[in-house]
Amino acid sequence: MRTETPRSAGLLASSLVLNTPQTPDADAFLEARAARTGHLVTEVPLDALTDWRLDDRLSHVSGRFFTVEGLSVRTDFGPVPQWSQPVIVQPEIGILGIITKRIDGVPCFLMQAKLEPGNTELVQYAATVQATPSNYQRVHGGRSTPYLEYFREHTGRRIVFDQLLSEHASWYLHKRNRNMIVEVPEDEDVPVGDDFAWLTLGQLRGQLQRGNRVNMNARTVLSGLSYRTGAGPEDDPHSGDVPGDAFQRQVVASHRAGCSDADLRAAMTWLIDQKARFSLDVRRVGLGELDDWVCGPDGIRHREGRSFRIVGLSVAAASREVGSWSQPVLEPTPGNVVALVCRRRAGVLQVLVQAMVQPGLTDRLELAATVQLTPGGLRGPEDLPPLVEYLEAPEPWIRLRSLQSEDGGRFLRADTEHLVIEVPEDHRVEAPDNYRWMTLGLLNRLIRSGYYVNVEARSLVACML
């Protein structure tokens, strides 16, 4: 399908363009790159990992990349007051950056077809640049990172989005990356490498709805976009009638509503109140101090098979900066789900978010989806989170259902079901005090403000674009 769009069109129009003469077929391009990517991914014992050593922690001999350590946790949030677990410690701040540019007046995004060894679908669309300092400083001795200069030398380019944001705070300790969208002038020539393609937001929407086609690092960057004027590549200055299905029109209206400075201040005050309400104490410990975990040369696992395990991977991939390497990865137990419950009030779509404490967060607590369920970590039904019954909502209430991978560079087969559920207007949701209704416009402003919205919720927001 080809949609003609005037040169004055903005981000909203880009979300409705499914193809242009200048962009490839998104499905065909990804499948062609996957077919041409020679790779071999093999699970191996930890003691078979080249240049990694296991003692009181698992670390690389260079002292770079990341470590796997022990974490002791105490909190009064949730049903479990105390536990210990392994955690990934990666203090480096990586760059997750997407270049955007108008092509024939339509904002397009330069995406990379990238192999990640832990993904169920190995090759997915990634940000233009996805690299830690260890990567782009070439500690691994590999090739340089393409397009890095666009995110380190900003002169003459418009910064659409630039923020440090947290990552999976149940598996990482204080992990954060710099999320960026940089717009280049329409007349600037940007060379396009073999694994890269310009895509419209409409094409990316289609990939997101199918699932396991756009990786986690790209989704967190895309969550910084908004249909609100001024929050992305210049949007249409009028609201007008929005084409598309009824729910998509509601999403656009919600992006444009309830996001004033007063709304933002009130939400931040509420979040500070929640941070003061709950306690969190975390302490790094040796792997040998984890009572409920078995740590050995073959891997690290929970004695009862809960939560996750740490295993080794040996990887050969011709398309990466380094042709072969080995590394540890975290493999969660399957079945993880994140869900946003939505409602319409006064004709405006609102989403129900919760203030959630997670042990790896920099500032104790961030906004999460209505339900964030990790069934592998449950001791029994008493550990189920509030509102979990909405995961069994009637099919007519479901607005989005897709399976999305988490960071395949650190996690193995970590697929999370993403759900968006719209309840009828006369349906009453009984939520605890740490829950709050927000428009997507307000949630987007909080995303763009820093450590306020966790990565799982941001992933859902990106899927709703």
What is the CATH top level name of the largest domain?
A: Alpha Beta
Number of domains: 3
Number of helices: 10
Overall pLDDT, averaged? Answer: 91
Proper CATH architecture of the largest domain: Alpha-Beta Complex
CATH superfamily of the largest domain: EvaA sugar 2,3-dehydratase subunit
Q: Which regions are unreliable across 5 or more consecutive residues at pLDDT < 50?
A: 1-9, 234-240
Task: Give the biggest beta sheet.
Answer: 7 strands, mixed
Question: What is the CA–CA distance across the termini?
Answer: 19 Å
The portion of residues forming beta strands comes to 25-35%
Shape: globular
What class, by secondary structure content?
A: alpha+beta
Helix content: 10-25%
In the CATH scheme, what's the topology name of the largest domain? Nucleoside Triphosphate Pyrophosphohydrolase
Radius of gyration: 22 Å
Number of strands: 25
